[in-house]
Amino acid sequence: MGKDLNQIEEAILAKIQERAHSRTTEETFLVKALRYQDLSSCGWLDFPKFSRALLPYTSGVSEKDVEAIFERYADQGSLPIRPFASDFVSGVRREEQEAPEPMYQEPDLSEETLENIKVVYDQGPRGTTSLAAVVRRIRQLIARKGIRTAVDIVQHFYSADEDVDDQLDMYEFRQACRKAGLTFRDAEEVSIFEACAETKGKIHLPTFLKLLHGEMSSARRSLVERAFAAVGGNPQDDQSVVSPGKLKEHFMAQAHPLVVRGELEPGYVLAEFLDTFSQLAHVLGGCENGMVSWADFHAYYDVVSSTVENDALFDLIVQRVWDVKTKAWADGDVSPRRLVREVDDAPSPTAEKRPPPHSGPSVYTMDSPRGPQEHHRRFGRGPQASAITKSSIVFADIVNTLQEVFQRLSRSISLRGLRGWLTVVQRFQHFDYRRNGTVMRLDWQRLCRGLGLGLSSEDQEQIFKELSKKKKGQAMDYVECLRILRGDSLPEERAQAVDHLFQALGTDHVAPAELKRRFDASNAPQCLLRRKDPRQAEQEFFDAVDFFSQGAPFDVEKFDEFFRMVSAVHEDDDEFRLMTTSAFNVQ
């Protein structure tokens, strides 16, 4: 129990360290949080107030465990605030619990076990410090602040190297950490120095930064190599270089996923790339003779990779901003369905075509036209007169084709995600009183009005007439309507992706439970790009699977039909690729 409680305390402390400001210590931060509940200013808390104070940091921790922590530090049912904060942050009580028992109480321990206990005891707190956990915590902290902070931290550590020997002693290391806003406990510092030491008492700076940023996976490295090749470089040749101007020319800020979604401006993304790339090259001494080599490009994306934890998002960002071609459109210049917001080349409103110049009579002219006034009301208005402007300009009525109406309806449904498709089908079935796949005219109009599908009365009538021909104009075939909205088939690349996913999830059929089990909402495009809550996205997907499966496994035809709706929701090729690969952990 003591070991489990120690792990819980470490997890709570990690959350406190994440929230603590860089200019304050964890102890001070914790004291302030506890004093907020000390309304009488007595310096002591009972358990209910203690539990409320730690509520933001004890998510997932049972009340029983919180009470056990309280009992560990409390004195007769009351907990002193400042002594608790000091002991909790330093880990004194945890170390006491983890200290080995006296040898006379453990007569059955082997010599090897006793030796291991002695080693841990001699090491002190660092013996129970996980270096991987420390690095992961710091990496997540940096990732939340972005690439600019990550590059600034590299500069802070190199600036602290006053001897310019790529080594830092403890004083220099702590100075760099203070400027970078990073905090380590004594045991964590000892672990870092032992892992990155080149000489006694000093850490090798490149080794530490490599540990901090981590290694890129083979898939990420391969993608970065393809990106460097896309700008004209050769990652296999150490002498291959590209100019900074060419790098800037090929960087497509307007294709960045967050720019496409309107969350960032293209100018901001481009400036961030240019600033951070040049800053890192200056710090590391790269870009010799003003040219960018593969080593410079790789070093930059080592840092970028450490700030993007999700593999799918990293793949999407690099593939888009460097226009890395995929197999489906390798012969073209750009993906045919890629959503790119062209900002610089946007057409000017004044460049649009204007109506023809007015040549007839007008209410704004004071002079009477020559000749007889044939536009007089006695003779009736001629064909060139408009009832709105009293001029010769006639506004033509825009008549939507049936195909355009169906496309607009499909887009309106898809904007609401899979829940939009689920709701439409449910409403159709609700109004199908005869259970024969049809709805009456008034029910169709009521459905459009209730769901706000954005169809005019003329559009609704156009669809109803087309789909009620087989019923002699009495009822509309909504099954045929749904088939038209989904489409008969997917494009070749998407069909192959769906087939590959089907084969990965099953052979002859896919059980709904298996489809839901394999779905990882955190890797889905709606969460990566649109900041949707993963729990909400997961529930929406689960509801759609349960409804459209009707309790039976998905065969090939039903699976393809389901993913035609998914394809309509994710119009962009890259998004659909994520939805059929990363979202289900399928390569």
From TrEMBL:
UniProt-annotated stretches for the region Disordered: 340-382
Protein name: Calmodulin
Coiled coil residues, start to end: none
Alphabetical list of Gene3D superfamilies matching this protein: EF-hand
Glycoprotein is among the record's keywords: no
PANTHER family (alphabetical): CALCYPHOSIN (PTHR34524), CALCYPHOSINE LIKE (PTHR34524:SF6)
Single annotated GO MF: metal ion binding
Keyword entries, A-Z: Calcium, Metal-binding, Repeat
Superkingdom classification of source: Eukaryota
Alphabetical list of SUPFAM superfamilies matching this protein: EF-hand
Parts of the chain that traverse the membrane: none
